[in-house]
Write a structure and sequence with these properties.
With 175 residues, the protein is mainly α. The protein is built from 6 helices and no strands.
């Protein structure tokens, strides 16, 4: 049996998430329940559905979950790299700007928080970016992009199966 192409759906889903995450104004979709990742999962699922039709296979939830995870992981790496590269080319230290904003809002900064801010600021001064924040951003994007891309793919599968009238059976464990 011929297996479907999994790379093309992942690339299309990833491109969708990256475009919706990187460009200003469009990236406001992230504020609506990570809609960028949900739409990326839907795109990956739609393209994978076409690949499955070529090899005459049924679209199952596990396929959508796999597409969502792969799309989410790849997009998280690319979007993190893009956002961190912006810091590399910027001459400003964003931590100093953030501290100034805290002062304008009359926020009280604890000594512990001030120590962390100074450490992050020193990372920006030394490297041009903060490895600590880059890793934190990557981890958070890996989780959120993968989770919401899976949700988008599963929603798409549910919708197309209801339209076709062939709801996928759910198995209940036998006791």
């Amino acid at each position: 049996m011929k297996s479907p192409n999994r790379l093309t759906p992942v690339v299309f889903g990833t491109m969708t998430i990256v475009i919706l995450s990187v460009f200003p104004v469009i990236n406001l979709l992230q504020l609506i329940c990570c809609m960028n990742a949900v739409l990326g999962g839907v795109v990956a699922a739609k393209v994978f559905e076409k690949e499955l039709k070529k090899v005459n296979q049924k679209f199952e939830y596990k396929d959508g979950i796999i597409m969502g995870i792969l799309t989410g992981v790849l997009s998280a790496v690319i979007v993190t790299a893009a956002s961190q590269s912006i810091f590399l080319f910027s001459s400003e230290n964003p931590i100093i700007e953030m501290t100034a904003m805290f002062e304008q809002m009359n926020m009280q900064i604890t000594p512990e928080m001030n120590e962390i801010i100074n450490r992050l600021s020193n990372e920006y001064s030394d490297h041009g970016f903060s490895p600590t924040l880059a890793i934190a951003e990557l981890v958070s994007r890996l989780i959120s992009h993968s989770l919401f891309a899976v949700i988008g793919a599963v929603i798409y599968i549910s919708i197309i199966n209801k339209k076709k009238g062939n709801e996928l059976p759910t198995t209940t464990p036998q006791v």
